[in-house]
Write a structure and sequence with these properties.
This protein has 293 residues and is α/β, with parallel strands linked by helices. The protein has 2 domains: 132 residues, D-Maltodextrin-Binding Protein, domain 2, CATH 3.40.190.10; 99 residues, 3-Layer(aba) Sandwich (D-Maltodextrin-Binding Protein, domain 2). The strands form 2 sheets. Strands 1, 5, 6, 7, 8, 9, 10, 11, 12 and 13 form a 10-stranded mixed sheet that branches.
Length: 293
């Protein structure tokens, strides 16, 4: 049976197979939840209609990512930009597909929608065992270093987490730096959580705290954005370094391009072009924010 006929049958039968609330689930932004058994029936019909088939020339791959995590990814005037996007775009366009970016204000919702197959790719994410049933991951294309920022001139010897025990720190509310360090921070360290990175930088510059734990690249970008870069520095040893991957939904037509994505990443690492992209996108983020001042 040809696919157009299958799709026509599904459309005609949908009102009888599902409740109105279930049909609302076709809109990924719908707020109402759907019973699992009905959602599974819908997903089975999607697969029957060819949802998992290979992409054709001219089809569109949809990208998303964290809305505010420069230089890896962020939303600028409604468009997703950043290092991860540029790596992925080249592979998709080489395969004669189109690219569409989707800016979603909630990072959790971006992950959920990709896991459901409404979006094809997340341009940058950590690899988490709990999400491996939803995503396939590329090889890592960079590391996201978790740094210790201090007021310029107020650095101190640091080799291991225990070196922070007698000092006072700050970090941002809601951020996680890995289960092991998060547990250590709660049990052994004196760390206050503040609302924004700007508040944290102001606190260490004003000597209300000894250090600020935050991602390195994002921290440098934010310090420059708030015109605080000259007042801070970071210690040479990191709290942690997390690999950053491209994730593709297991329900995406584009998942078969993962070997091409990995090959592209390997080439870029060998050429040193990812480091250049990090510098370029950091500079772009800075210039865009300077224009807004």
């Amino acid at each position: 049976m040809k696919r157009p006929l299958i799709l026509l049958i599904l459309l005609l039968c949908a009102p009888f197979l599902f409740s109105c609330d279930t049909i609302k689930r076709l809109n990924p932004f719908a707020k109402e939840e759907v019973p699992d058994n009905l959602l599974k029936r819908l997903e089975s019909l999607e697969r029957l209609a060819g949802y998992d088939s290979a992409p054709k020339e001219g089809e569109t791959a949809i990208f998303t990512g964290h809305p505010d995590y420069p230089p890896i990814m962020w939303c600028q005037d409604g468009e997703l930009v950043g290092v991860g996007l540029e790596i992925l775009r080249a592979v998709i366009e080489d395969n004669r597909a189109n690219v569409e970016t989707r800016c979603i204000n909630s990072w959790q919702q971006a992950q959920d929608m990709t896991g459901r197959g409404y979006i094809d790719f997340i341009v940058g994410t950590y690899k988490r065992p709990a999400q491996e049933k939803l995503f396939d991951y590329s090889i890592p294309y960079m590391q996201d270093h978790i740094a210790i920022f201090v007021k310029k001139g107020n650095g101190f010897p640091y080799e291991k987490w225990e070196d922070l025990i007698d000092k006072k720190g700050v970090t941002t509310a809601g951020d996680s730096y890995g289960r092991e360090f998060d547990n250590f921070m709660v049990k052994r360290l004196t760390v206050s959580r503040l609302g924004t990175p700007k508040e944290c930088f102001e606190t260490i510059i004003g000597e209300g705290a000894d250090y600020f734990i935050y991602p390195l690249y994002l921290g440098l970008a934010e310090a420059e954005r708030f015109d605080m870069l000259e007042g801070i520095e970071y210690l040479p040893k990191y709290i942690a370094s997390n690999n950053v991957h491209i994730a593709v939904s297991k329900r995406s037509k584009f998942k078969n391009l993962l070997p091409d994505i990995n090959l592209r990443i390997e080439e870029m690492i060998k050429e040193g072009s990812i480091g250049k992209l990090i510098t370029e996108k950091t500079k772009y983020y800075r210039e865009m924010n300077l224009q807004k001042r």
